[in-house]
Amino acid sequence: MSDNRTTSPTFADVNRDVLRTLEPPGNLYFAWMCFVALLLAGFFVAWTGQVWWGMGMAGKRVPQMWAMYITTFVFWIGIGHAGTLISAILYLFRARWRTSIYRGAEAMTIFAVMTAGLFPLIHAGRMWFAYFLLPYPNQRFLWPNFRSPLVWDVFAISTYLSVSTVFFIVGLVPDIAALRDASTGWRRRIFSMLALGWEGSDTQWRHYRRAYGLLASLATPLVLSVHSVVSWDFAMALVPGWHSTLFAPFFVDGAIFSGFAMVLILMLPMRHFFHLHAYIQEKHLDAMGKLILVTGLVLTYFYICEVFTSLYSGEHIEKASLFWKVTATYAWALWTMYFCNCVAPLILFWKRARTSPVILYIVSILVLIGMWFERFNIIVPSLGHDFYPYTWGIYYPSPTDTMIVIGSFSFFFLLFLGFIKLMPSLSIVEVKETIPPPIRDRAHGH
Amino acid sequence: MATETVLGVFAHVDTTVRALEELRARGYHDLTVYTPLPVHEIEEVLERDRPVSRVRLFTLIGGLTGIASAFILTIWSSMVWGLVTGGKYMQPVSGGGISGSSLPPFFIIAFEMMVLFAGFGTVIGMVVLGRLPRLRPSASYDARFTNDRFGVAVHCAPERTASVQELLRGSGAEEVKSR
Prior knowledge:
The complex is a heterodimer of chains A (446) and B (179).
Chain A: H1 11-20, H2 27-53, H3 68-92, H4 99-124, H5 149-182, H6 185-194, H7 202-235, H8 247-273, H9 282-312, H10 316-327, H11 331-343, H12 351-354, H13 357-384, H14 399-422, H15 428-434
Helix pairs in contact in A: 2-14, 3-4, 3-7, 3-8, 3-13, 4-5, 4-8, 4-14, 5-6, 5-7, 7-8, 8-9, 8-13, 10-11, 11-13
Chain B: E1 4-10, H1 13-25, E2 31-34, H2 40-47, H3 55-80, E3 91-92, E4 98-99, H4 104-129, E5 150-156, H5 161-170, E6 175-178
Antiparallel strand pairs in B: 1-5, 1-6, 2-5, 3-4
């Protein structure tokens, strides 16, 4: 398939082009995989060190007992949201441009939530007691406190991961059946098992379609609820800079903003290396660019609200906390965040920027940096400058927690790189739905 | 009565729809239609006299189970392990009912468990109603049906095979076979 094809692909082209993405990869892929695996090894060494020598290996100290780990946890949970937005909300709105990117975005959601799920375990230290988080009968007759936002978080995130995974697998079934029918040998046996004997008969499609619509409607409120619950981890506390009703919409918008940036970071190289220009076209990039722009502008509005509320509150401690964030030790992080999240996306007002992969890529990286710093600025400076000067403090990252944060990216990318070579990263069925169906007699009907 | 299956393979949506319309007009209702993707025009013909898929019933039952189990879990466990919130324990009152001030947070747990159970219910519904997993392919299935061909399998009495074959060919099937 050439990159500048003008006619739209046929059904058989879609099958062939998607199958082609599953061919044995080249050296570049393995080189990138090795690099990612090396970083991941560093991640495990750092984590092992922390388990062996204790939590002192991480830089977190009183008063910042929530530091890089929780920052990165919130960051990764946020990344997931764009995938669910694309796969559920845009499905219900029948936004046809979503079809070519939704599979990748959905995979991104699951891998991002899995990556995020590591952080509460790493942060809590003794992760072999993680099951304490779940309600289960025990001889001490202790139960989790269901009034605690941290317990809501456990429920919200495990529901999010489970429902997203189920939704993702249901979407994969007809595509795996197509792979099964096109492959031979052991691959065919594995795909046969995974496809559950899918044949595309009218009865199967009938229930499938209904189930898919229902799953999309169930996943839709999750897009809004999960990050709202995560934001309540902060907003329910009394710390200045956290205790605000603004937090839920503010977090949800930021999550979608960063998620779209991550979708572009994954999709642009995929489009380039797999030659998917016929499916991921300029109009898709344009639509993504517009969404980043809109969510970025909404985020800017929230930043203004945050500052305004703090200044207008008449609350001395709130104002002091804001003033300290803007001018003191962590000011550089705050201004980096404002630049990356408010100023950099403005270039997307320009249509040529929205259709240029290079500019989109640079903006996306800046947005991710900005959104990581947003969570950092919420957590670390707020804890470091609360009500009582005696408890003020500065956080210094250690090599251990820095390596773990960097390594989490390799965990995510390793999962994603593996996925695109093992499973169809473009939905065969949904892409076919957007191309004109084969019609013999054009004069009749249509 | 023994039935025979006649399979017509189509390359186009309009010819498939034409065949389905003609089959229905002549009274053949025992059909299996294979498509690589859900096609609106084909569904329109097939769904005309069918009730809506019952998957939604599974979703509803799942969702209600989730809400109920969340409230049972949260209320019961705070009764057996009393934590003072809002100045009160949550405890049973003599004469029936529960006293306490901390129900609102439990709605969050109930919401999450509703979505979780409803999601699982939906998938169970799809698997049960769609007769999945199928251990071996059905006799009329062809690998092309996940690529770019549409299949119409007509289950009919052996003596009508010839006329069905004729009908399928006449409406534009590129291949007709029976077994």
